[in-house]
Amino acid sequence: xxxxxxxxxxxxxxxxxxxxxxxxxxxxxxxxxxxxxxxxxxxxxxxxxxxxxxxxxxxxxxxxxxxxxxxxxxxxxxxxxxxxxxxxxxxxxxxxxxxxxxxxxxxxxxxxxxxxxxxxxxxxxxxxxxxxxxxxxxxxxxxxxxxxxxxxxxxxxxxxxxxxxxxxxxxxxxxxxxxxxxxxxxxxxxxxxxxxxxxxxxxxxxxxxxxxxxxxxxxxxxxxxxxxxxxxxxxxxxxxxxxxxxxxxxxxxxxxxxxxxxxxxxxxxxxxxxxxxxxxxxxxxxxxxxxxxxxxxxxxxxxxxxxxxxxxxxxxxxxxxxxxxxxxxxxxxxxxxxxxxxxxxxxxxxxxxxxxxxxxxxxxxxxxxxxxxxxxxxxxxxxxx
Length: 385
Fold this sequence. Notes:
Elements: E1 3-6, E2 12-15, E3 35-38, H1 59-71, E4 75-78, H2 91-108, E5 112-116, H3 128-145, E6 148-151, H4 155-160, H5 164-177, E7 182-187, H6 204-217, E8 222-228, H7 232-240, E9 247-250, H8 256-261, E10 269-272, H9 275-290, H10 294-301, H11 305-311, H12 319-329, H13 348-361, H14 367-380
Parallel strand pairs: 3-4, 3-10, 4-5, 5-6, 6-7, 7-8, 8-9, 9-10
Antiparallel strand pairs: 1-2
């Protein structure tokens, strides 16, 4: 049946939903690339909370979604930006998420890496030793859980650091004490404005030099870097300068097909928020790439970029709303509610376009259920045929 979807200027347009999903079967992990999907959390819709309350999480649905990703061979990047870290999920909630997900990963045989930050620090500016101690507390918890650590960019460090030397001090200390190689995470200000000037400079060339110096001083403690700057050229240049054995995990949700496919000089692995809704399709594409068929990989993944660019359009930090919305339509959760009330962060026209693009790709396991849920949302907003 025809749906009438609102456009940006309020006019309704007719859309005919597809009736058959893509056939996307589960499978084993990949041979040619290491691929993590940064996973969202499912809110408890019955909790009596406000946007300022600690996150109320539906643990059963949250862990079920991680099992879904593992079943397709994807690793899970836990307690990251996609999980609303710092945008509804505080450190207490993130710590519980890490403990539960790491235990679930052991039971399922899935790969997991977890975010280490400093978000237990609240209030005004902090001294550098406080920032370092906060990182140490979180690193200890992640390592005790048995997960790989991802050293996330820190708002507190960005506010405290006086220049590159403070980044050398903090990261050098953390890398020396890390039990196993970690992933370093550079999240750009389009994802979090508080991270502007990270690595000691707003000049990205200077910041890149500092970042590479940190890695060069401890190459045995760095499994890889996760770069989320939405600049494909800069990522390619950066990965070519990495020490041997240090991987580049693309976090570029605009250019991921070309970066993962690579060129004659190398390629990127992946740690992507957009692989939360794209998981099964992305997994199928990487299995094609495992056979050496880069053209076949691009043929599957290139059509998803329009959806990714829509979800991550400015203000980029609100992409989580579209991710959770698509999870609801796909049947991974029974409601469209988010911690912190963030379901209100995107407009109805934005959500309608996300539905249309995802439906065209065949991402919904049950297209009729997705159509019915979209129709329900439209009616709640007062849209009638």
